[in-house]
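Changelog-adjacent note: as of this version, every example in the card shows the full chain rather than a window. The one below runs 96 residues end to end.
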Amino acid sequence: MLPEMLTDNNPCLQAPSRPIEGELQFSTMSTTGPWSAGTTAQLICKLPYISQGETKSICINGMFSPLGECILPDGGTNNNPVNVMPQQENIPMIAK
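Full-length structure tokens:
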């Protein structure tokens, strides 16, 4: 049995915002709304990204609850590559 607040008649007309580097998978398997109360949207991050925050959003009272985001495992952002070798300095060789 669904909790009382999920049994309202207010469908969600708009999906949660699709996170950068992630996809949404709906419990109804439909990617278009409206979605009935109680429908869930699951956050699935593309590799090598991982989820941070809520991974499930639920349709309640006509709105989906907030979702987390997809981040790089080291906490970096899209602007900071994960595996970058430090640049070596050019050190002149001294002839003997």
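Structural remarks: Confidence is low (pLDDT under 50) at residues 79-91.
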